[in-house]
Amino acid sequence: MKMNIAVLPGDGIGVEVMEEGGKTLETVCNVFGHHAETETALVGGAAIDASGEPLPPETLDLCKKSDAVLLGAVGGPKWDEMDYSVRPERAIIGLRGELGLYANLRPAHLYPSLIDASTLKREVVEGVDIMVLRELTGGIYFGEPKGIEEYQGGQRGVNTLVYTTPEIERIARTGFEIAMKRRKKLTSVDKANILESSELWRKVVNGVSAEFPEVEVNHLYVDNCAMQLIRDPRQFDVIVTGNMFGDILSDEAAMLTGSIGMLPSASLGGDVGLYEPVHGTAPDIAGQGKANPIAMINSVAMMLRYSFNLSNEAEVIENAVSSVLDKGYRTPDIMPREAGGCKQVSTSEMGRLIIAEVEKAG
Ligand code: NAD
Ligand code: IPM
Ligand code: MN
Predict the structure, then answer these.
(1) Location of each CATH 3.40.718.10 domain in the chain
(2) β pairing state of 266-268 and 103-109
(3) pLDDT for 260-309, tens place per residue?
């Protein structure tokens, strides 16, 4: 198969983990006889430094004409004082909006050998396997009006949380479809006890549920869900929620798997899928070879599965990750306090080990 892939490393550890993600893709293609035509472009702070804007038109055009986009991460202290309209993070929002990527899949799957990497007790996290489905092109991230305006001698910052029926229907339907392929349980998360946008969310989710009688549906308020994720995460199969609640709950869910450095994502809904780790640019560890590349590498696996229907190749990557973890290799974020049989490795060593396992599958 021939694939055209836009590669956007971005900033900070985005660049470091993309290095390993790119090599993994190359290896899987060599092993299985596929051809990945990759083109790298600037995004985020790196793009601001080069051209003054976080999402240059060339980068957006490249993404639009590619089959899929791989993204590292954007942002960092260097650009934190810039106006919101031109900060690195705008690039992410721009890409999601322009590519129509309304469905963001963030799978929190605990690799058995990482059971002690989580800060929670092993009996709580054992077997955790949750798909967080985050609505990605609506809600408070996109609502109008927004901005900072003069107000009563001071200023007023405004964002608007808005969801329309079609926006809720399509993400709910995606949630039910995903649940049908899993354990057939869907938890919709909202704040319907106080927010009108959530009142509509809940009503629409209940409406769509009639199309999926086999799926058991429940509703949780977001504050309770945040608590339940820590109390008893195994009650969850698929969680469907709005843009901001999904942002927060997915970082929380990441810790059930040991580290945010483990969580990949797929953003779907338009013609081109975008694949990126859930984490950011990690300025505190950038440039030190400490970043865990697994979220990025497993994002490559998600790309093969969702954009190219190459499930077998995706599993080869995921199994390679599993074998390397089983052998005790750990980046610092997943290293146990007492080493036991574990060996600490750098970003590039972790990448190399995973690639060696992928090669064995050939
Ligand atoms: P972050 O995810 O970058 O880091 C949070 C913590 O997790 C840090 O301690 C970091 O060291 C650790 N961490 C993250 N990824 C890791 C990995 N792969 N391996 C090991 N440890 C890892 O979140 P933050 O510090 O809130 O944000 C830093 C910057 O990244 C900000 O500019 C933010 O806007 C941006 N950001 C970008 C994205 C994205 O591009 N999709 C996502 C989140 C944050
Ligand atoms: C994420 C990030 C982004 C978000 C930021 C960088 C805009 O935190 O992908 O989770 O809030 O969606
Ligand atoms: Mn986030």
Answers:
(1) 1-103+261-362, 129-255
(2) antiparallel
(3) 999 999 999 999 999 999 999 999 999 999 999 999 999 999 999 999 99
287 Cβ neighbours under 8 A, 6+ residues apart: 16
- Are the beta carbons of 130 and 233 closer than 8 angstroms? yes
Verify whether ligand 2 is closer than 6 Å to residue 254 (CB atom): no
Model-level pTM?
Answer: 0.98
Of the listed ligands, the closest to the CA of 263 is 1
CATH class of 129-255: alpha beta
pLDDT at 95: 98
Q: How far apart are CA 268 and CA 308, in angstroms?
A: 13
Ligand 3 centroid distance, CA of 260 (Å): 10
The three-state secondary structure class of 281 is coil
Say yes or no: CB of residue 225 within 6 Å of ligand 1: no
Which ligand is closest in space to the CA of residue 285?
A: 1
| CA atoms of 144 and 233, how far apart (whole Å) | 35
| Number of residues that make up the chain | 362
Quick one: which atom of ligand 1 is closest to the CA of 277?
A: 41
pLDDT of residue 294: 98
Residue 207 CB neighbours (<10 A): 13
- Residue located nearest, by CA, to atom 38 of ligand 1: 280
Mean pLDDT of 328-355: 95
